[in-house]
Design brief:
C8orf32 fold, 18% helix, alpha+beta
């Protein structure tokens, strides 16, 4: 178990004082058996007139801030501290339904109605390019199982496509990403979403944070730190939801902090809102994310008295 802290600061800048509209925030990590929230703080400047919270259709925590003031800057400073426990069991070998993880993948009838929207393809593929790209991973072994196929897809995106930082904007389509041979973490996540869905698997987009251990900063380059990160969750026919980070070639939840889970990336925006004024007054947005691990507490040594 690791104690991680996340500080996420977003600052909007304007040339003149503008009026701020309603803003929606998705900063609070989702609580589960593998991550437990210990502390959360949120400072907004200028101070909002009102803040309320609700759960969206996926159970994500949404904060809504309303303002009755003007300003040349608007800053959101979020801090979260949580316990993070990597999940090592991705495919239970003792499960009586393990054969469901073999292609063609079949979900239990009871689960299927809840998964259909996450299985449906969202992009046109007139020439079958995406379909062919997805099916190439079925040939990795004689018996194509879900975990092996998805691991191969994750590793291939990481190895074959170039990461390019792009702080804002909608994700590229999967075909655009394949054609360009490059993209951001959200582009790679959308590519893998579509690839898994074309194989009949339920997949969802995840927005959150990436922790890079100090020991790995000098030995392996991780992409997605310093900002919000995106990856995917895919529902194994036997085994439940499993995390895959194609940007970094990671399988499992290690070093990944979930904040929002959604069917579509547009449903998992970390921060969105409105402002009123001359469009030329907008100067830009600055985002800074720091994810750190707390040092393990030092144990005091105690003297032991001998017994005769």
């Amino acid at each position: 178990m690791t104690i991680l802290t996340v500080r996420h600061i977003t600052r909007y800048r304007y040339a003149e004082r503008v009026r701020f509209g309603e803003h929606h925030m998705m900063f609070r990590p989702r609580e589960s058996y593998d991550q437990r929230l210990l502390e959360t703080r949120l400072n907004i400047s200028p101070r909002p007139a009102d803040i309320r919270y609700f759960h969206d259709v996926f159970g994500n925590t949404i904060g809504v801030a309303r303002f009755d003031t003007r300003g040349k800057e608007l800053t959101f400073d979020s801090f979260n501290r949580l316990e993070h426990l990597p999940e090592a069991t991705l495919d239970d070998p003792a499960s009586p339904e393990r054969d469901l993880n073999t292609f063609p993948f079949v979900y239990p009838p009871l689960d299927l109605p809840d998964l259909r929207s996450s299985i449906a393809s969202q992009f046109a593929d007139p020439k079958g390019t995406m379909g062919a790209w997805s099916r190439r991973f079925l040939a990795i072994q004689e018996k194509a199982d879900a975990l092996g196929v998805l691991t191969a897809m994750t590793k291939a995106i990481h190895a074959e496509l170039e990461y390019i930082h792009r702080a804002s904007g909608e994700p590229q389509t999967p075909l655009e990403t394949l054609k360009r041979g490059s993209g951001t973490c959200r582009d790679f996540a959308v590519l893998m979403l579509e690839g898994a869905r074309l194989l009949g698997l339920a997949a969802r987009f995840v927005s959150g944070y990436l922790y890079v251990p100090e020991r790995e900063k000098s030995t392996a380059r991780r992409f997605g730190s310093g900002n919000t990160h995106a990856w995917v969750r895919i529902y194994m026919p036997s085994g439940g939801w499993v995390e895959f980070d194609p940007t970094n070639g990671l399988v499992g939840n290690k070093d990944l902090i979930r904040v929002a889970i959604a069917r579509d990336p547009a449903q998992a925006l970390p921060l969105s809102g409105t402002w009123y004024g001359n469009p030329t007054h907008y100067l830009g947005m600055d985002v800074k994310v720091e994810v750190r691990a707390e040092a393990a507490p030092k144990l005091r040594s105690r003297g032991v008295q001998g017994v005769s």
